[in-house]
Amino acid sequence: DWNKGVVGLAAGKLAEQWGYPAVALARDGEYYVGSARSASGVDIYGALKTCEDLFIRFGGHRQAAGMTLPVEKLDEFRSRLSDAVKAQRKGEAPRKQYICDSEMDFTDITVENVEKLNLLEPYGMGNPSPVFAAKHAKALNLRAVGVEGKHLQCEFLQGEQQRKGIFFGGGHWQGKEGVYALVFQLSLNVFREK
Asked: What is the tens place of the pLDDT at every residue in 21-79?
């Protein structure tokens, strides 16, 4: 029952969240009108091309595509597209990939460095906020917060340095102890002048 105008946004959000190529479809009478987005290095256009005989209309490129297919072809489309993605991945399941600008140790996460990064603002299309990676971060406290525990308040230790953060949408990680590789963006959080 989705509006045809939102299928591209929905497919993009699903691909981004799960690290899997995604197709979102809206029913329009006897047809599905859909949009696909890539993830995990999959050539989504190439994968869809293997199903081209099922489509009324089809077009796109490696990262995104659109299609129209008859309702009765949905199951066959789902199966063949899955097979095409598996073939591209050589049987390896797609997984979410993170592209980081640099590795950063906790010793470099300082107010001064965050303020220097803020000189690069405004962030947005064409100037994304820098993304960093930190390895060997031991979880000290992972606590679900927010409505229905949807988010994760976290505290990690790397060497002698301790840092706090928030993982939006990560509440399901509550209490999962261990040593992690982290991907993060930096910002200052001033609450009640602290």
From this structure: 999 999 999 999 999 999 888 999 999 999 999 999 999 999 999 999 999 999 999 99
Place of tokens 């329009």: 28
Exposure b/e, 122-161, CB count within 10 A at least 16 = b: eeeeeeeeeebbbeebebeebebeeeeeebbbbebbbeee
Give me the pLDDT at residue 92, please: 82
Q: Beta strands of the chain (E only): which ranges?
A: 22-28, 31-37, 57-60, 64-70, 102-103, 132-145, 151-158, 161-167, 179-184
Q: In sequence order, what are the beta bridge partners of 156?
A: 139, 163
Q: Nearest 5 degrees, angle CA 67-CA 69-CA 75?
A: 115
CA–CA separation, 150 vs 139, rounded Å? 18
pLDDT of residue 41: 85
Burial class (CB within 10 angstroms; exposed 0-12, middle 13-18, buried 19+) of 115: exposed
